[in-house]
Amino acid sequence: xxxxxxxxxxxxxxxxxxxxxxxxxxxxxxxxxxxxxxxxxxxxxxxxxxxxxxxxxxxxxxxxxxxxxxxxxxxxxxxxxxxxxxxxxxxxxxxxxxxxxxxxxxxxxxxxxxxxxxxxxxxxxxxxxxxxxxxxxxxxxxxxxxxxxxxxxxxxxxxxxxxxxxxxxxxxxxxxxxxxxxxxxxxxxxxxxxxxxxxxxxxxxxxxxxxxxxxxxxxxxxxxxxxxxxxxxxxxxxxxxxxxxxxxxxxxxxxxxxxxxxxxxxxxxxxxxxxxxxxxxxxxxxxxxxxxxxxxxxxxxxxxxxxxxxxxxxxxxxxxxxxxxxxxxxxxxxxxxxxxxxxxxxxxxxxxxxxxxxxxxxxxxxxxxxxxxxxxxxxxxxxxxxxxxxxxxxxxxxxxxxxxxxxxxxxxxxxxxxxxxxxxxxxxxxxxxxxxxxxxxxxxxxxxxxxxxxxxxxxxxxxxxxxxxxxxxxxxxx
Length: 478
Description:
The protein has 478 residues and is of the alpha+beta class. The strands form 4 sheets. The protein has an 8-stranded antiparallel beta sheet, with helices on both faces. Strands 6, 7, 8, 9, 10 and 11 form a 6-stranded antiparallel beta sheet that branches. Helix 8 runs antiparallel to helix 9 and helix 11 runs antiparallel to helix 12. 41% of the residues are buried. It has 15 helices and 19 strands. The N and C termini lie far apart (65 Å).
């Protein structure tokens, strides 16, 4: 009995201690904040927890009166300082998370910007509905996803901007505007993919899709066969709704071997109810361990690749609903190391140039020291609705997971290698994604995004006092 009381006291103390740290971390003055990349610890003047629209209006007014800056944060998985600015006010939007309106018949939902995709899935799944476009994982906020104009596994929709009906924007002068294709439409392509530089997205109305039952179709192949496989067996087959591929970073098969999974509309949709319960992460320890081993050894990378490949190929024929396909595991990727971190890069290359592109980046990576853990490949169709569009052609999107040190020399080493990769990407008429660490040069930014000066000019016109700022803007827009 005594042992039970001791354990109970320790639990209560631990909970109280954690809660006190959490409150302090969100409210203290001149605290240090950082995004998921952990390479940019920044001292903020205030970190404000947002719960109501009045909260935001009050803090924007205070910032205007005091000549201070504001940056906006959701889950902070943008890794290039997009949610941070020194000695400014950080609005933590994760508590601004109400579902405001849901109309199953119209297939639309209106949510505050701090709502996560998981929240939306929980709401709409019982009605047989699904999100149209989101990241592969559902842990991110809707406002953050709009700010970077995400894309996902679905090959029949473009980037997120295509499924946005409208949104409300709190502007730098405190005004609230309705923005849609019909109302204040000039702002639509700047704010979506605008990295929080035009104001605070308060709430958004999204178009939804039907939740469908898919059947996995998996295959392995050489990288040189992938383009034709995709064009003939995926893009031209209307029954294929989603697609995912991985290319090996294991030394024995480096950037040569691939496996793919197509999500094919099942013939028997009446079986959907049997599979419709939303899945949760269950097996975390084993993939976390194997990913950990791959961080520090070549044999670990070989083992992880063979295990992953075998797992996905064994899932051939598996049934899964659209909502569950869009709930990829993420907990096993969590990584805490005081000396190292993991950063993402995403490169877009035209479908027709894929094989030649892989050959060229392999030549660089075989010579360079870059601890590359994974490359996932998705497809995003030509979509230039956003001013800062990354899909100026039908593109394959390659997401690179990189383990690197946090010291200055480690950052400089990674920058040197990645700038080489970006040059090759641009030489193949490609582009790169902006939410990640600012390794690209100014010249590379202008090549990848020829409308970038137009974007920054519009920001300064709309926000002449530069009330909304972040390190991305400070790095490239000043």
